[in-house]
Amino acid sequence: MAASTESPLRIVDRAGAGALVARVMESLQALEGVLARESDHIRVGRLREGLAEAEHKTGLSAAYLQGLETIKANAIALARFAPEGLEALKAAHRRFTAVVEANQMVLATARAVSEGLVKSLAEEVGRARASTIYGRPAHAPSPYARPGMGAGQSLVLSRSL
Known about the structure:
With 161 residues, the protein is mostly helical. 67% of the residues lie in helices and 4% in strands.
């Protein structure tokens, strides 16, 4: 990985501090909007729509993290030139944290539901393939399976969307 040749932004006045806070606040609000839309879509089962902005979300996340690094590097100047902007940014970050937590819960729920559905489907397919003799499951010998191996085919699942 090559080192960046750009020097970090240095805040030296009130205008520069205000511009930095505004830029970081803008990327934070845009990222919050993307996460909210993603959660809304996934919550109602529209996975394709929910994941459509993944690339945009990645770019906004990178911009936001870069902005946070610049803020950390200029913490003293921001406290001096834009203390109200810094407080507003802290409050916005707390709200954003709640949005991220809600988004993670929606994604975890969707994952658990889909895994449960796939597991149920696999069990149902396995049950349908097993023949019964006098009420008990019996496995007919397969000409393709070696003795001692499972009779039946497995369900294959791709985890990539």
